[in-house]
Structures
1.
Amino acid sequence: MDMDIKKLMMMMGLALAAVSCAEKKGGDPENTGFNYLIDQFADVRVMRFTVPGWDDLTLQQKEYAYHLSEAAKYGRDIMWDQNCRDNLAIRHTVEAILIGYEGDRECEDFLRFTEYAKRLFFSNGIHHHYAEDKFFPECGREYFASLMQSVGKEDARLLDVIYNPSVYPQRRSTETSGDIVKLSAVNFYDGVTRAEVERYYAGILKPKDPHPVSYGLNTKVVKEKGKVVELPWKVGGIYGPALEKINEELAKAAEVAENDIQKRALGLLQEYYRTGDLRIWDEFNIEWVRDTLGKVDFINGFVEDYNDPLGRKGSWEGYVHIKDSVASARTEILSANAQWFEDHSPVDPRFRKETVRGITAKVVNAVTLAGDSYPSTPIGINLPNADWIRKEHGSKSVTIANITHAYDFAARECPKNILDEFAYSDEEKALYREFGGIADEIHTDLHECLGHGSGQLLPGVSTTAMGEYASALEEARADLFGLYYSADPKMVELGIMPSPEAYKAEYSNYIRNGLFVQFNRVELGRPNTEAHMQNRKLIAEWCMEKGAADNVIEKIVRDGKTYFVVNDFEKLRALFGELLGEIQRIKSEGDYEAGKALIETYAVQIDPELHKEVLSRYAALGLKPYGGFVNPDIVPVVKDGKTVDYELVYTDDYLGQMLYYGKKYATL
Ligand SMILES: [Zn+2]
């Protein structure tokens, strides 16, 4: 799958597994017997992830990651309080009941209460993590009251917050009439109107500052004696106790940092938490961007502002990740051989680049998720947010491989999954389970590292010649480059593709998806409009038509269900090469009419019968739309009073981790 679409889906808050990845990845031979899916409730699935590469870290790097992880987890309560001022009190009540209730814990009502607790933990509060509406316990209000009473936590007001639909109905209000500051449950403002807040910031902002400070990022706006003021989130201010613990761990991390840049960055971050000075936050970010050589990296701070109805306040977020050395090694090999791929590509030599450079993808594996990123997490990160820092000092953009893997592996653990539903034969499924995952990753590597960068325009051809068809055609070009080379013996020779058969798993999957499965994401009656989806449909439909005489791809209906089966992989590869040659020609010559014809003929119209069928078969799988993760525990191994190692322990106990965090990282 394209990195671009992964990011898009992350932004949409959708679980990859449910919307598209289940058909993509293959088995995980190194983790046989390890279950990724550990819990399901409401509209959510909870998974765990493994951390490839952890054992290759030095003891010092592990210690560094350990303290950064502790610093991340100590911010947990901040996020809860930011989401709604009553969240922590409600969580403490629910925790007390889960731990201390001595009545019937098997009855229907208690199970319903437990489900509410799970949802509460998942959302870091009483509002749905994505939809932002308040959700309600399925057990009755009187029953909930009796549970509270049984653990000595009676509180009529809190009970009303939990059950009354008109109290805090939305975390961030989407009302179009009314005051979104007043109507939002988020704890960023108190006793102020939207107009007052806007007036306040209008008085502070300097319109032409080339290095604008992110005013308001780390404060709460309140009224004191009739005057609008900001109260900072800093040591000695709001969230002081949490930030002190975070600083303690950051200081320990700094002692074992990998390099001086990291050390300086961590020093600045602590100073920022001590002072609340946003100029120091900017200095920290500049230093953080400069650290490109470290193996361990992190996010720690008030970062994303999308929870604030006015888009100013940063939600607390923590992340610790390590470089994915396997993926990086792979893309380094591809980059080093970029010229060979360019010279052998099945396009007119006039359209090839004389000298080409590959890109080394930045792939990481998550170690610890926290705050805004826990349990529901992004699969790509692109920071810092300040535009002027990005322009003058750069930014870091990474994709998080082990989270994507976990989604895919977990999807296949569901008794009903996309692969079993849409793949035709046992043979096809088995091949996919063995090689699908790695073959898909390699296809993505080829697409990203070499595909987009290959080829050249003829002199005088404009880069914008393809107009509105440019992105679908460009994605098709990169995908075809990847598909064509996935089957090349060179890939096995370079030690990248594990077997000469592996590419077949990717080919079958690509065709199945492009002709059929992907349309589960399009509303019935609507055309196919998204660029990546158009590119896949174009490639698959074109090959189906051009290979019809040789039956390269066959449509088979069995028991009323449609399947698309690849009969001839060699010929399919040749067709991929032919289409790559044609799309490269179109781009190199700027042949707008030919590009338009390709898209309009093959990429847009969805067969209404097939569309109806895929939607109903997909719905019958009953997949949960949202996903999130527990963290592995990082456990110090102590021998003779000395820490000699840090081991990862992969818990499969979702509630257990929540209760443990509630105790260990309680700061507010
Ligand atoms: Zn792309």
2.
Amino acid sequence: MFDLILRRATLPDGRTGLDIGIKDGRIAAVEFSLPGATGEEIDATGRLVTPPFVDAHFHMDSTLSYGMPRVNRSGTLLEGIALWGELKPQLVQDSIIERAMAYCDWAVARGLLAIRSHVDVCDPRLLAVEALLEVKRRVAPYLDLQLVAFPQDGVLRAPGTEELLLQALDMGVDVVGGIPHFERTMADGAASVRLLCEIAAERGLLVDMHCDESDDPLSRHVETLAYEAHRLGMQGRVTGSHLTSMHSMDNYYVSKLIPLMAEARLGVIANPLINITLQGRHDTYPKRRGMTRVPELMAAGLTVAFGHDCVMDPWYPLGSGDMLEVAHMGLHVGQMTGHDGIVASFDAVTANPARLLHLDGYGLEVGCHADLVVLQANGPVEAIRTRATRLFVLRRGRVVSRCAPVRAELDLPGRPQSVAFTTPVV
Ligand SMILES: [Zn+2]
């Protein structure tokens, strides 16, 4: 009766020993000891089975371009933006597609099956937009790629950028982006937030802006973003990415700001790998961490996700599409090493970004898509601790990636013959 049964699964909420029955690409049953013959069975042997990882913030037009045309010597945000400006005129569509497709292969192997990627719309040729729309079409059978129209150089800085953004939306880009802190003045930044939210409201689209990505305690575009979300009736449809200035803001001001954000049901995306490296660059010592106030925002009931942001591009030389690495860094920077904090960090790379992307059929309930990852770990904490191997990745009930469990063979007198860094499973 089932096409496939995943037996003896441990779920992220701690329930264990459950069988997951899959039929026609969807979860058809989650029960103990499911009876019946099936086409295929996978024994999870008590290991963690989770819905896939979701990256709510990425730049797929620049990924895997590290060193093109040169490396970022200072490692700073501004040299990265300048470098991207040098690379942009040299881009050809085929190479963007090739790099993005290669990254999507990595993503699938890491159990990362949904990505929201910003795509720069400031290039009058809209080359990257065309390329990523093609990638979105190609990967659709195995990966949900959501695109954000991102005016990297500011929507108000150069004449014609608003038209390019509208053109990108007409071509099929899903979400409205922005970068208010990069506009010329605070007033222009606020005007850009208003303009872009109105465009999204009119078209019925979601909003996700790079917002206050600086250490300036007075960069307060997030306040405008929350205000506009509320004014336009877009509660739960607007997200602020980075919000790093919140790290440096006055505590009294933040005590007023967070309830305003909660009222607008603003989504929040921190990008810990990038925020910890790019922020605090003007500090001597002590150096600020520069990540937004993740535990406080979570405590206020906001949906907070951790994004990867960059992999091997002008801004970041490292990364491999591993959202467990992102969660690992996020919980360190946010000092979330208590048990609940670690579990919340796992949610920040799975269920929370799925909510921000408005993904349909995501989860472990009956009727959800059978998009699942079996990890070499007994739960979310061990998964993050070991950056666990993805043993099986399923998309719509079909195994799309598999990996042998990692263990080292030892040759030590009187000691076990191998070691896997995991605690024993059933
Ligand atoms: Zn970004």
